[in-house]
Amino acid sequence: MTGSGRWVILGLLIIGLGTAGAWADEPAPTSGGRDRVDEMMGRYNLSPAFTKLGRGVSNALLGWLEVPLSVEKRYTTSDTVGSGLAGAAIGIFKGAVRMGVGVYETVTFFLPLPEHFEPILPTLEYFQKTTKRKPLPLE
Question: What is the pLDDT of residue 128?
């Protein structure tokens, strides 16, 4: 970098730091504690559409998690190979369905289909807030 380039960068830094105080004195928006993005989301009710978009992206990217989940559900100690293969086959099918639904929800996030942006598939068990498993007994 040349000497003049350094002076230009130094000058821009000084100007930027000098105007930081002016930016800090700017008053906050007076719309009941809500910023402009919150106002737009409330006015046009965009929240369900963006929820559908997030759900679709999540399903499209994490649909493969159905494979280990299905293997875990169907695994038995009496038939290890058969239950493992059956769980893997079912998981691959369910994962493909989940990724397809994710792509569909991502592409059509702005359309209220199904009715009122309802989810097509239930949430994966990995991400559910409550677990169906019983806690381990303490010894």
Answer: 73
